[in-house]
Amino acid sequence: MKKFAAFDLDGTLIRWQLYHTVVDRLAALGYLGDTAAQDIRDARMRWKTRTASFKEYELVLLTAYESTLKNIPIEEFENAVGLVVREYKNQVYTYTRDLLKDLQAQGYFTMAISGSHHEMVAEVAREYGFDDFMGTVYSRKDGRFTGDMDSFPVADKAKALAQLVAKHSLTYDDSYAIGDSESDIPMLASVQNPIAFNPERGLFEKARAQKWKIIVERKNVVYQLLPGESEYTLV
């Protein structure tokens, strides 16, 4: 049975949020309503100035998108996806990019599990040679979005991972997973080599309690925090 490594994408391999960027483009084009672009911008600034949380900002963005999904022409959505992927696919973190290459060279089966749109995840997966992937799938009918979801792996990344492991007859022995947010915790807890990368507070606290490896990449420096008996060591 083959070993595997599972990667989150947004904020882990890619330096920003692909999902958010697509929504931003659609909002700017007016497909999410008259005030959506400004509402999202205001929410993002509240997060950036730390007067609100990232989750509060994200809720504004998701609500604006999903509440108007039926009104978004498929062609405009696909155009936005193409533009975002072309712009951001090479804007990656060096640590995760190099880790991915190293594990692939060792023969690991590599997977991307992301909350971003399936269409974007597919493009990034092809670009970086992932063997399989899962992303959010919004259902379509008669050439339009129905407003429903067919797949939402972020709801339970451990379950999504288990599905891919079973699909490809993989082994959890010496397995890897890497992610940056609380939604990645179930996936990280499922493997033998979990890595919390630039973790948000919830993930950081979980990683510290479980003594998982923590990696922080800032500018052109990668900091590795390795768990010891009583504290982390910076190496």
Describe, in plain words, how this protein is organized in 3D.
- The protein is α/β, with parallel strands linked by helices.
- It has two domains: 1-15 and 91-235, 3-Layer(aba) Sandwich (Rossmann fold), CATH 3.40.50.1000; 17-90.
- Helix content is 43%, strand content 27%.
- The protein contains nine helices and nine strands.
- The chain has helices at residues 18-28, 36-48, 54-66, 74-88, 94-105, 118-128, 157-167, 185-189, 201-210, and strands at 2-7, 109-117, 132-141, 144-151, 170-179, 193-197, 213-218, 221-227, 232-234.
- The protein has a nine-stranded mixed beta sheet with strand order 4-3-2-1-5-6-7-8-9, with helices on both faces.
- Helix 1 packs across helix 3 (54-66) and helix 4 (74-88) runs parallel beside helix 6 (118-128).
- It is globular and about 55 Å long.
- The protein starts with a strand and ends with a strand.
What is the strand and helix layout of this fold?
Blueprint: E1 2-7, H1 18-28, H2 36-48, H3 54-66, H4 74-88, H5 94-105, E2 109-117, H6 118-128, E3 132-141, E4 144-151, H7 157-167, E5 170-179, H8 185-189, E6 193-197, H9 201-210, E7 213-218, E8 221-227, E9 232-234
Parallel strand pairs: 1-2, 1-5, 2-3, 5-6, 6-7
Antiparallel strand pairs: 3-4, 7-8, 8-9
Radius of gyration: 18 Å
Uncertain segments of ≥5 residues (pLDDT<50)? Answer: none
Biggest sheet record: 9 strands, mixed
The total strand number stands at: 9
Number of helices: 9
At the first level of CATH, the class of the largest domain is Alpha Beta
Q: Write down the secondary-structure element order.
A: EHHHHHEHEEHEHEHEEE
Helix fraction by DSSP (H/I, runs of at least 4): 40-55%
Strand content: 25-35%
Strand order of the largest sheet: 4-3-2-1-5-6-7-8-9
The CATH architecture designation of the largest domain is 3-Layer(aba) Sandwich
CATH topology-level name of the largest domain: Rossmann fold
The number of domains:
2
Structural class of the helices, strands and pairings?
alpha/beta
First and last CA, distance: 33 Å
